[in-house]
Specification:
By secondary structure, the chain is of the alpha+beta class. The chain has helices at about 15-30, 35-45, 50-60, 110-125, 140-150, and strands at about 5-10, 60-70, 75-80, 95-100, 130-135, 150-160, 165-175. It is built from five helices and seven strands, in the order βαααβββαβαββ. Helix 1 (about 15-30) crosses helix 3. The radius of gyration is 15 Å and the shape is globular.
């Protein structure tokens, strides 16, 4: 697999079902071992159905980007969402990076770096000057990736996974400037 093996594009309405499947699979692979099955099931049911993804794709507050193979298989996606930022996000014109998932077989293949560059470009197009995200405090791989991409930890907020109250680290970075290498 090489960067030539995938392309980035905005998500389309027809992507709702494959996006739901990719989101559920990557979330489950990443977090199942560290969470109660009933909490994981409740979160996945509420978040990754095809109907829910279709609604999110139609939401003008959201921008969803996908990475796809030449055959059209979705291998990664990112979603930006306009809305209120936590108080610890103090940069101007903030925009949330709500989701950023890469299918496990594509880890280390340049997909994440390319997708992050596309996220930064999309955020700039939307007029954002600060990009922020929440990442589970027990996900060191993601925290390290975001730090490599220029994000810095500015605080925390609560994330509800089913009935389990968890802590997400809030990370921010300017939209302009160096992206991932």
């Amino acid at each position: 697999m090489s960067p030539a093996d995938f392309h980035l594009r905005p998500a389309a309405p027809a992507d709702a079902a494959p996006l739901a499947a990719l989101g559920e699979r990557t979330f489950r692979e990443t977090f199942a071992a560290a969470n109660r099955p009933e909490d994981l099931a409740a979160y996945l049911a509420a978040t990754y159905g095809a109907t829910r993804q279709a609604e999110e794709l139609a939401d003008p507050r959201r921008t969803t980007l996908v990475a796809a193979t030449a055959a059209g298989e979705l291998i990664a996606f990112a979603q930006l969402c306009a809305g209120a930022a936590p108080a610890c996000v103090t940069g101007p014109a903030p925009l949330e990076l709500l989701r950023f998932y890469v299918d496990r077989p594509w880890h280390g293949q340049g997909v994440a770096a390319a997708l992050m560059r596309a996220v930064l470009a999309a955020a700039a197009e939307r007029g954002a000057r600060t990009l922020w995200l929440g990442v589970w405090e027990r996900n060191p791989r993601a925290i390290a990736f975001y730090a490599k991409c220029g994000f810095r930890d500015v605080g925390s907020h609560e994330f509800l996974l089913g009935s389990d109250r968890q802590t997400d680290r809030i990370m921010t970075r300017p939209v302009a400037g160096d992206g991932p290498r």
